[in-house]
Structure formats: structure tokens, C-alpha cells
Amino acid sequence: MNLHVDVPDDPTDVRLGQFAVASQSSLQERRPRTLKHGDTFGVFDRNGDVLSGEGSPDGLFHRDTRHLSHLDLRINGAQPILLSSTLRDDNAVLTCDLTNPDLHDGTGRLLLEHDVIHVRRSKFLWKSTCFERLLVRNFGDRPQRLTLELRFEADFADLFEVRGTRRMRRGTFHPADVGSGCVTLTYSGLDDQTRTTRLRFDPAPERLESGRAVFDIEVAPRQRSVIFVEVRCDDAVPLRRPREHYLSSMVEARRALRQSSSRAASIATSNEIFNEAIRRSVSDLYMLVTDTPEGPYPYAGTPWFSAAFGRDALITAYQTLWMDPALARGVLRFLAANQATSEDPAADAEPGKILHEVRYGEMAELGEVPFRRYYGSVDSTPLFIMLGGAYLERTRDVATLERLWPNIEAALRWIDVYGDRDGDGFVEYGRRTQEGLINQGWKDSHDSMFHADGSMAQGPIALCEVQAYVYAAKRAAALVASGLGMPERAALLEAEAEQMKRRFDQAFWCEDLGTYALALDGGKRPCRVRSSNAGHALFAGIAPPERAARIAETLMEASSFSGWGVRTVASTEPRYNPMSYHNGSVWPHDNALIGLGLARYGFKREAARIFDGLFHASVYIELRRLPELFCGFPRRRGQGPTFYPVACAPQAWAAATPLSLVQACLGLGFDPQARTVRLDRPVLPDFLDELVLRNVAVDGCRLDLAVRRAGGEVATHVLSRTGDVRVEIAA
Questions:
Q1: Hey, which residues does 456 pair with through a beta bridge?
Q2: Fewest CB atoms less than 10 Å from the CB: which of 258, 413, 448, 520?
Q3: Domain named Putative glycogen debranching enzyme N-terminal: which ranges (predicted)?
Q4: CA 184, CA 182: separation in Å to the nearest integer?
């Protein structure tokens, strides 16, 4: 029985691109610098400036509103010359080293030759505030009188406006409140919320106006002058001067980063370039983690997705479960607290459904975009149950799962009642209003679901990977039920999982393609397309072993495996486009799940090939930072990957990708009851001869171990242990 009033979906409707990210400029070309803390993030150019202009993503953003849309530094009216621009390895501070160009007077006479004045800009974020220190040094042999000017502006644009969505109306901008060393910019939105940006300067500038601060300084030879700037995105008034506030906040910010990352296991290897990449991955991951009342929660990515997303956080938590289970606990508790309890078509919400996205900006509050609290993802709900089972297996934290069990039961009811829209045993999606997302799997582009002839699939659509997730969710729920002393419930869930496994194989397997269909359309016709989605079936364990070998072969063929990773869609398919978002690109997180799936069925060498491809891609990328995605062009000798113009970096599930591929290659598993760490037929990718894991936790014990190449095999050695923990190795 169909319980829904579905809105017919026309994938050719031009309105469907209304929430897409505009591609007017390339993030890869600009190579911006990003900082984040909590609900605040900043996107700066390499000089440390915020540059305004059409299509510019720059700014200081807080809770989905741009609180600073322009900030640039001038020395005697001229733009400084960039020397270097670096983020600390832990992402705590952005440091930009600048120098003066040749400075002339009005007649063209040279007043100061270049490279005499050094300006070091140090910026960081902490508790809704961007802190900056300008350290000006004179390396000349004469005193220099300089005019430093900071020009600033706040447009209070909603993040979706910055992404390219047009608005017909805006709220009210109030006159700037200019005080002694302080300027407050204020905007009253149409949502009746007042948003403020307060800039403070120490020392107070000689001239301070609504859009600029001017400092006249004199710097003796070999001496320095320091200016502190503070940009606050709320109306709280600090009690300390900016100079004192900068120093105390710096100490707090760095201490918090150390504490959050210190609970996790760490990785060191024989490859120093990979060590740089893995340090950046861990730093990016913990920069994106936001502390919520329910625990740590990884926001999806900057600049466009610095928010709580269900799917992204669930997958990120799964990828990092072996090294930091606290993330999984925080994600599970947050999503349980925000689980839907009633039907709301505008939010695509139904009882038991797990969150897709939360936004706090003006457009979300007004309903101009549907994402205030939005539930339009078909996979978050089974992924929530999967993570709950995996967390219990990893930690034996029965108390947390007891509290979550009502949420798991509600999620199971959603799968059976609302998810299965036509009673055929599969979970389908279809948006409830015209404003919702048309495609609600992880490939949510409007053109990502199609048939072998290139025609668009009409909904409701049953995705390949979602059925696999449902199978795994039933098995995970059975494990939890068993652990909570409910054997009859566990047996029923296991039986339902087996039924799904049989139905899935019958309906989705395409013998001539050697893989599972991408999806079933509304008429139950399979979308006979070779795609990466089938790799998720391996990840979830729904594929019979004889199918797994064929799927692995298909995924690793040249049409699918670009050399950098598995493409979302094979190059043989009619809608293949290596520059598209979902129809031929390479996504690191997609490959991480495929790698885990390949390893699950014993295809460790294939998983290691994926690991090798993504590592060598990172070699060509600034900061060794894997982006959200890159283009699917074939790998060429001596050339790096082709970048996607508006890919987010950092992105949580991309940052977690190397961590999960380490687990895949080692076959790393845990038995907390037996206090055992297991390695299942471990292999090392070609770029590693040794890999050391430290601070691996299991049931209160700690373990350091090394895996080293020994000819064609690998050997494992325990370096140290705390507590009664042991290692088992399956050869």
C-alpha cells in the first residue's frame, strides 16, 4: 500500500538546479585558505584577505550567514606582495607572510623599495570570532612611516546566496555603530533575527569609519609594530582587550585541538609524503568536528557544507570507528535527538527518518530553501542503524545502545512502512514537494539516475546501495537486539535480512554487465548502468561470494578505474562525463567504501590499488589534502589528477578516506569482549614498506603495533601494550 502523495519528478525541469553550487569561479584555481571552529568558518585568499565580488566564496561565515564579505590590507595604498601562505599542520593557525611592493609618491618618485617591510598575518578562529595579529617588521636601515589600511564590509548574505541562489528581497542594513577602536555592523533579516559583526582593533586606529580602519605607524630599523584585529559574529561583548583576548584564545584553541585528536589512534609509516597526507587528514577531520550537546559531530565540509549532515557524518564516523569511536557515539546521539517524529512534507520528514541536513540561515528560516531541518535522504536511516551495530561491535558500549534502541526501532519502522513505498520489499525515494531534492541518495545531482540509453529514470527510485544498507541495517539491528537480550527480535531481523538479500540479487543482478544495476525506476525497470554503487553492495555484505568476484573485476576495469580511483560511472556509459559531479568523477569516500567492500570479500590487492591511486593523487594536491571529488580523466604518467572546480576541501569523508583504507588493507577488526585486535590477511600498498599504529584502544586497553613488508608478505609486531590486550592474525 502506498502511504504517500508523491510529486512527479521531471529530471529535465530547470528548477532542479536551484540548490546547486554555481561554478562561476574555481576554488582550485584560487586555492583559498580555510579555517573552522564550531559553527564558524572562514574562507580567505592566500594573502589572508577576504575578497568580495560576483561569485566569490570568500568570507567569514557563522551559522550559514556571511558576517564578513570583504577584508583587505593595504600598505600606503598598495597591495602587499605574497611571500608565503601556510596552515599549521593541525589547522590551528593561518600564517601569511607579506612584503611591500615598490612604493612611490604622487609624482612617481620611489619612496620605499620592495622587500623592506615584512608583514606576518596570523589568523585563527575560536568561539564565533576570527582573531588576527599583524606583525610589521622593518628590515631597512632607516625608520619607516607607514599607513596600514584595512577595508571591510559585511553583506550578511545567506550561504545559499553565496552558492548562487537568487533572492528577490533582503532585510534591513543598519548604519554602522563606530566607537573607539570598535565598529559594529548590523542587519535585521526578514526572519526577524538581528545579526551583528563587531570589529575591534588594538591599538585603536588613527581613523576609523564604517568600512575602513587606518593605522599610521612608525617602525624603527630592525624593530616591529603589532596590531590586533578581532571580528566577532555575535553580539557578546568581550571583557578583555583584543591583545589579551588573542593570546588567551590562542592557548584555548590549540589545547582543544590537542585534546580532541589525542584520544584517537595515530598512524606513522615509512613514507614521509604519506605521513604528511595522513597528518593533514587527521587535522582536517578534527577541524571539521563540532562539539554538540550530544557529543562531537563532524560537519560535512567547507565552504558549502559546513553543517550537520546525516549521511556524511554517519559515513565519516564509520570510516574512523576503528581509531576514534567517540565520533560515532556523538553522531548517533545527535541524530537520535533529531530523528523525525511526525510527517512534514515540506521537510520530507516521516516518523523514524534520520536527518539529512540542518541549516540556520535566513533563507532556511524563511523556507526559501527547505533545509532548516531537512530529511530528504533515503540512506541516512539505514546507515544510522548500521553505525549503531558497528559501534557496539567496536566498543561493547551496551549502555549507549540501550538508550538508542527506541530510535533504532523507529528507524526500522520507517524502513518497513515509509521507506517501502509500494510494498515490494525495497526502499524507494520520492520527494514530497517540488522544493525537495529530486534525488535523495548520495549521488543527488538531478541527472544522476538514468538508464542504459541515457534516458532519465522516473521515480520513485530504489537505489542499489540503499537496499544493501537496509540488509546491513537489519543485521546490525539483530546484533544490537541480541546484545540487549532480545533473541526473538534478533532472529526475526536476521530472517528479514536474508529475504532482502535474495530479493535484491534477483532484481538487481545484471549478468551481462558483471555488476548490479544502478537502481530500479518507478516501473521496477533496472537502470542497467555500470556504476560505483555496486561497490557499496560489497561494503554492506549483501553480495553472494560468486557475485563479488565479478563485481570486483568490473570495478577494476579501465572503464571504471581511472588509475586514481573508481569512477562514479564507467566511461562506457552514455551519460559519462569525467567533469560532472556524479556521472564519471572520482570521489575519495566512495572509493573508501568500495575498498572496505573489496577487502571484506578478500580482494585486498584491489583495495590496495585504490589506496595507491588516491595516495598518488594527493601527492599533486596542495597540503596533500584529498578534496571532495576530482575529475574522472584517466591517470597519465607524470601528471596529477584533474580538479573539479567547486569541490569542497577539506571534506570530512574525504579526509577520513586514507584512515579507512588503512583499515581495509590491514583487515583491522576488534573483539572488545575478548580484548583482541584482529588483522585479517593484511597487505601493504606498494608505496608503504612499514606502517605503525599507536594508541589503538580496545575495552580500556591500548596497543602499538607495526606491520612491515617481508618479501612478498607482511609481518606484524606488537611494539607495546597497556592492559590485557592481544593481537590475532589471519594469514
A1: 450
A2: 258
A3: 35-229
A4: 7
Rounded to whole angstroms, the Cα distance separating 13 from 51 reads 34
Question: Does residue 329 sit within a domain?
Answer: yes
Is residue 109 classed as helix, strand or coil in its secondary structure?
A: coil
Q: What is the CATH number of the domain that holds 343?
A: 1.50.10.10
Kindly tell me the number of DSSP H helices and DSSP E strands found in the chain: 17, 33
Residue 229: its H or E element: strand 224-232
The reply to whether 6 falls in a domain is no
The last residue of a domain, from among 666, 688, 710: 666
Considering the domain architecture, whether residues 510 and 361 belong to the same structural domain is answered as: yes
Considering the domain architecture, whether residues 616 and 684 belong to the same structural domain is answered as no
Segment 217-269, tens digit of pLDDT: 999 999 999 999 999 998 887 778 999 999 999 999 988 888 887 889 999 99
CATH of the domain at 696: 2.60.420
* Arithmetic mean of pLDDT over the chain: 94
Q: Which alpha helices (DSSP H) does 541-688 contain, by range?
A: 545-555, 588-600, 604-619, 652-655, 657-666
Among 546, 601, 538, 524, which residue's Cα sits nearest to residue 566? 538
Q: CA end-to-end span of the chain, whole Å?
A: 50
Domain membership of residue 533 (yes or no) is: yes
Both 404 and 468 in one domain: the answer is: yes
The total number of structural domains in the chain stands at 3
> pLDDT, tens digit, for every residue of 417-449?
999 999 999 999 998 888 888 999 999 999 999
Strands 676-680 and 726-730: parallel
Beta bridge partners of 364: none
Cell, residue 480: 544490537
CATH code of the domain covering residue 107: 2.70.98.40
Same domain, 128 and 252: yes
Q: Which residue among 636, 666, 696 closes a domain? A: 666
With a cut of 90, say whether residue 109 has pLDDT above it. Answer: no
Alpha-carbon span 358 to 51, nearest angstrom: 27
Model confidence, pTM: 0.94
Apex CA 234: angle with CA 340 and CA 75, to 5°?
A: 130
Does residue 652 belong to any structural domain of this protein? yes
User: Which strands form 212-219's sheet, in the order they lie side by side?
Assistant: 70-75, 144-153, 212-219, 207-208
Give pLDDT tens digits for 371-428.
999 999 999 999 999 999 999 999 999 999 999 999 999 999 999 999 999 999 999 9
Per residue in 677-730, pLDDT (tens digit) is 999 999 999 999 999 999 999 999 999 999 999 888 899 999 999 999 999 998
- Is residue 618 a contact partner of residue 624, using CB atoms and an 8 Å limit? yes
Three-state DSSP at 718 gives strand
Parent domain of 651: 263-666
